[in-house]
Amino acid sequence: MAAVEKEEPVALLPSSNKEFLLGNHSYKSIDELLGNIVLDQTSHGKVWFKWLGFGFLFVNVLVASIAWLVYQGIGVWGNNQPVSWGFDIINFVWWIGIGHAGTLISAILLLLRQNWRNSINRFAEAMTLFAVMCAGMYPLLHTGRPWVAYWLFPYPNVLGMWPQFRSPLIWDVFAVSTYFTISIVFWFVGLIPDFATMRDRTVQPAVKKIWGLLAMGWRGSVKHWHRYEAAYLILAGLSTPLVLSVHSIVSFDFAVSIVPGWNVTLFPPYFVAGAVFAGFAMVITFAIPIRKLYHLEEVITMKHLDWMAKIMLATGTIVAYGYLCEVFYAFYSGSRWEQYLIHNRMGGPYSVLYWSLWICNGLAPLFLWSPKVRKNLVALMIISQFVSVGMWLERFVIIPMSLHRDYLPSSWGMYYPTVVDFGMFFGTIGFFIFMMFLFIRFLPMINIFEIKDLLLKLRHEEHHSEADASPVAVGGGE
Asked: What DSSP element (H or E) covers 5?
């Protein structure tokens, strides 16, 4: 007979999921914590009204700027020859980049079964929608005749005219419209179970009917959950390639040209990394004050911020590598045009912006290597602001700085944005803030049912941990 051995209790490592939901919660407490932000309108203090008013003020600036632009024409912008693309394309690319983090958090992390997305995916998706709305304004108005924008779509017409599919403008139209459509459907489908929760918890008949219509008859049956999960996974699968393709297509606007500094194959991965970089910086910018304002420290934990900071560090390193590659390509190529471009960036009339770009995107993210910095909310907030400014400066460096001195010195010029340029830019920022704070007040900004699912997983893990940690006798046989 083999000797009967007794295993010693095994010291189990703590579950990683425990760091994504703190406190002693139940399903009811999660409903109250997250649902009452919407159902109890007294939970929104003066801070909410101040930020909404601030956003609305700049929404009016945006409306006035667009009205004046449509009335006078795009000559009110600072665009000129040779800088035919100015603030309009700079801000378009910047806003599209900010919209990428929401889809990455929602779709890619869902397919990878990452539970840490549960607390931040909902308002990150909302940021995607509002950022794409801001981005879509610029190419539409840049055409100079937005009232005939339907010409960009291949609709049946008696003239038999089709869009020029070799035009980057057409690529942008299809990429951005597809991205926005899939994102809004993905966002709405994810809200359906929470709409039902709101419907069941509210007591006002009129409000209950509104939630009921939005919930689309959701009862939480097995069939409903099965169809919901199938649809959600399909939409996540559709959204995932869009994260990579949309900003790649935007980068083709530049890469297909013969302008020095643009015609490089590095642009697609470089732009995608920069988009995720800027997107996560904006998510952190909103997550830190929101968790403080609505006392959500137990749901949006320091671990969430730490992991977002790590992704920002990783993508920031890729972006900095791209900057070094641009310098290397210019001098290794032996092309005088490429070399002059780098000399102009480093020592030309816009050199201050170029070196500021390196400080914001190259130097500031390096502090995130320190765990102490990643756990410091003030430091995270400051670094996120540096990144947001730096990614805007990157677009300025790529576009006007590459155009204002081209092959012919006789056609060199300078680019100076006008009041209307700044009015539209700050107006879109105000629109973004205005829409985000409306979203926070009237829709669940954190995914209630996914937090409950995370709580269920934690309970299972605790149960298995207790069972595995108990002494177990192992029998033997002949």
From this structure: strand 5-6
